[in-house]
Amino acid sequence: MATTIYTDHVTEDDDHFHHQDQQNDTDNDHDHTLEKKFASLPPSAEITIYVIVLTAIIVTNTLTIVAVATRSKLRTIPNMYVSSLAVADLLIGVSLIGQIFTAVPETAEFLSRSEWACLVRTSIIYILVALSTLSMLLIAFDRFLCIQFPLRYNNIMTKQRAAAIIAASWVVAVAYGTVPMYTSNYDVHIGCEPTHIFPAWYMIGANPLLFFVVSVASFVLYVYIMKAVVRQRRLIQAQEIAAGVANKVEVRQRRKNYGAAKMLFLVFGLFFLCWSPLVIVGVLEYTVHVSHVWLTVCGAIVICHSAMNFAVYAAMNKDFKIAFKVMLCKTNSNLVEPTGTITLDS
């Protein structure tokens, strides 16, 4: 009887594991089915989508850069960092031109089988990831200095120092993003997938560490900044009641600081919400298998994010809004000068 019971138990376990295997096979088949559906778009449709998205990214970020360069009220130190971020987003749009060729069967095979083309294309993406992440930290740190040291800010952060800091961030981003080119595990039979060719220490170590450490640091700075500007806003309400002429400039400046902090915190929030899923899915893809559909979806969100900041600037900053209106509608800026604008100045 004991033998019979043992035999029955083994049979049940075998059935259980067999059922699990079938379930896993079903899940894998489901993933492959989804991937086939995503890959079933005709090349003309893929190219059309790429052209629309890259045009939106290039146009919106070019407008941001030109607005800062041509409008005196926007030529401020904080906007130097905003322009650096816009350049990074602009380059993401330009990099989509290379993606267009992956939608053409004749060039897609070359791009996948050419080690140089594969590593350069993917390294550019990681350079821009690092640059966008560092730009967020620099913007937050600049606002922190302005709030923490309002009287000394202009002496601490000059335009020359800001330019040097931005240049250093580009150097760090390029150095960081090109590391995989010298340490990759590229194999022509694997194809051009970062989660397959880049080393583990980079994909599940350095890359997520850089993103989340810098994001946490930026978040902490913004929390401090928002607390400080909320306190300032309460002071504004008290000063507006009994403020003399001499205090009105200070009241107006604190309003600007509050508005600028809200806008930049929203820019950071959008950045984190759009980029973090791709970083997390990249780690999961390297450690446990996840469908490439998720990488495609998360990558699409990141790409679309590159055109979002323009909308934030236009909605929350009157100087940007007027600059965009002048460039797009040929409006005379002298007829629409703002009063009490939210300007990213010191």
TrEMBL record:
Swiss-Prot/TrEMBL keywords: Cell membrane, G-protein coupled receptor, Membrane, Receptor, Transducer, Transmembrane, Transmembrane helix
Localization terms from the record: Cell membrane
Residue ranges of the TM segments: 47-69, 81-104, 124-141, 162-182, 202-225, 263-287, 293-315
Topology in membrane: Multi-pass membrane protein
Signal peptide region: none
Domain G-protein coupled receptors family 1 profile intervals: 60-313
Pfam families: 7tm_1 (PF00001)
GO function term, MF aspect, one: G protein-coupled receptor activity
A single GO cellular-component term on record: plasma membrane
Family per similarity comment: Belongs to the G-protein coupled receptor 1 family.
Annotated protein name in UniProt: G-protein coupled receptors family 1 profile domain-containing protein
Source species of the chain: Batillaria attramentaria
